[in-house]
Amino acid sequence: MASSALRARGVPVLRHPGQGDPEPPEILHLDLNARGDLFRDGFLALENVTDADDLATIRSLVAPWLDGGSHLRRGARARDLGGGPNAPIHEVTNLTRLEPRLLQTRFFRRAVQTTRALYGPSARLMFDHVISKPPRNGKATAWHQDCAYGHSLTFSARRLHWWLPLQDAAVENGCMQFVRGSHSGPVLPHRRIAPGAHSRTVSAPFDQSRVVACPLPAGGATIHLPKTLHYTGPNETDAERLAWIVQVGVRSRLPMLL
Ligand SMILES: O=C(O)CCC(=O)C(=O)O
User: Fold this and answer.
1) Is ligand 1 within 6 A of the CB of residue 93?
2) How far is the CA of 45 from the centre of ligand 1 (A)?
């Protein structure tokens, strides 16, 4: 979907010049409008963050680790986020520790440098994970705020969460959806989606009229803030939906105020 069509749907979007650029810069220039959108809405859609070659490289580096994970090590973990055997959402955490070549990809370098341009030179990788939704997986990633997952997240307010789909992302295969402005409210109560499950879901009501879906062509990404309420729907297509998520920020000793 073109930027103009996204804007018409109310998605704040920034289009990077992309492959036509003779020397694409490491930093995506988030101009004042884009920064305004990000901090007003709590998220931003970016087009042309990276190119097809880089996506293919990322896919080839990620794919070998998505087979169940008995060989994972160095803090990388495989788990299911779906909460039940018949509704899989496969996740592998901290993949960059196993596959450091991911740190050299164009997307990763841009995510880090762009976050540094916004939050200062000490911004660094905090966490990364890969999430696979198999064809017709039948399960959404529940509405949640990332902050609800851990104390450490509330101690790094200067943090951007980059969500890179490794193919086109649409509502039908589970693109990101956000609640506009939810980052400026409190961290809402959450509960586990099922007894013993890792995944959490918000348990307080929220304003459904503020939900914005962000379909993106491959090469685009979204960024959101740690308190922004978000969700991805079930994958209703015949192809896998794969995303690599990279959280970059500055650790602080003060709890999040905003
Ligand atoms: O990719 C997904 O399905 C969900 C991603 C997400 O919610 C997150 O990274 O916080």
Assistant:
1) no
2) 15
Q: Copy the structure tokens of residue 127.
A: 């966490």
Domain ranges of the chain: 3-249
- Tell me which residue of 16, 250, 238 sits closest to 115, measured CA to CA: 250
Contact 44, 38 (CB under 8 A): yes
CA neighbor of 90 nearest in space, from 196, 235, 225, 229 = 235
Q: Of the residues 93, 130, 141, which should be mutated to test ligand 1's pocket, given the most ligand atoms within 8 Å of the CB? A: 141
Domain 3-249 matching CATH 1.25.40.10: the answer reads no
Residues 127/162, Cβ–Cβ less than 8 Å:
no
Ligand 1 binding pocket mutation candidate from 176, 177, 199, 244 (most atoms within 8 A of CB): 176
What digits encode the pLDDT tens for the residues 99-141? 999 999 999 999 999 999 999 999 999 999 999 999 999 899 9
